[in-house]
Amino acid sequence: MERKTPRKPQVLSLAIVLASAALTLPADARADSFASGDIFISLHTGEVQWRGSDGTLKMVLVGTVPGKAEGMGFDAAGNLYVTHHCADDFCLLGDSVEKWTPNGTSAGQFGSGYNCNPSSIVFDNSAHAFAGQMDCSADTLKFDSTGSMMAAYDPAAEMRGAGWIDLARDTCTMFYTSEGPHVKQFNLCANQQLSDFNAVPFSSGESHGLRVLPDGGVLVAAGSAILRLDASGTLVQSYDVVGEPDTWLAVDLVGDGTFWATNWGSSDVVHFDMASGAVIFSFNANPLPYTVKAVAVKRAPTLVSKGRMTGGGSIFTDSGMRVTHGFELHCDPADNPNNLEVNWGPGDRFHLETLTFAECTDDPTIDPNPPAAPFDTYRGKGTGRYDNKPGATAEWKLTDAGEPGRNDTFSLTVWDANGTVVLTFQDKYLTYGNHQAHK
Q: What are the tens digits of pLDDT across the range 281-295?
């Protein structure tokens, strides 16, 4: 039975009057970059509020793509993507997706061919983007990392198109809502419609933003309440707040057993504990009702103390130079062996002798399966030899984004004994090879 949580008596009000003077911050007032736990609130007026995990406003993102701002998503590099509905009756303006770099700078429009009203965007572990459209063809569009369209899918509609979408961990099953009483499913790999996830329709008769849970269940905003379904599609819990209108619109997971939700009718944003249903915190994001749309959380990676990563391969720097590497590295530097060998240029070489720092984390945007591993990102530091001369140091980051390895990345900086950088590159995809995280 639905249980309404009483509103806490002290609710932080952070109402923002969207006047032009408040929308543009000087360069020295800009936040440095998107941080773990930051939340992003899209607005009917087209802007996006960038806030800290405590709700404090950091910046208002005012972009170049017009139209109502809707669902949002992050890629593995931490860029934010914001969907926009049409800005006019003929859909000549807006109707696109805007990309934002992690420091809050617009990188312009991402992709093309929307028709019409893209409402959500998600990414798989191969850096492909999937955009759900609410109207017109209502197709779900697939793009590569550059924004080139790769495919269009036609999932079954219920009331409108497949506007709100999310991917299961297998990256084949797309869960979506169509403003009707069901969470629906579509197999992207087989291009095949699947049965509805919940056999019993929602009593509210509607459904909107959703997120797939780690246990295979689904959290969905269903107007009158937020509903949690288990892995079989059975309703197991509902969330609501006394005094809030029946217009819950979107949700996103924090990654620590809590989630944020937006209420369209009140423009309130609420932080819930998933297990108890208690309200942790809430604020009003705009003094006008029917203004707040979706919420997106920059999720923190999970720190892992045990495990190892092995592998190697090649990357090419921006100048076209080939760099090869091979390694076996443990999450605990006290565990052995720890080896890293890097070769580049006409005969340059770094050989790791001592691992001085290691950090293994599980980035929620990266899926290292198969095989199952507790982490997917390895950051390390160490000392060793550069061209067989002692005293060199290096820092690196290795990621495992699953098989066959072409989406694994390598970042590296090497200093010689004098502190001079002799090699540096960031987040280069493997051209050949594979990184493998292990338990």
A: 999 999 999 999 999
